[in-house]
Amino acid sequence: MCRWLRREALIRLVEGCIWLLFTGYVRGGEQSNFLKLLMR
To answer: Which domain of life is it from (predicted)?
Structure first.
């Protein structure tokens, strides 16, 4: 049970990070800068 809860929390954390990155990317609209960060 403890392990499952920890995994669930980790998944939520990762989803939150991805959502923040995605919304920031859409709001900023700086495609070239985003791609530069990905390629680095």
So the answer is: Bacteria
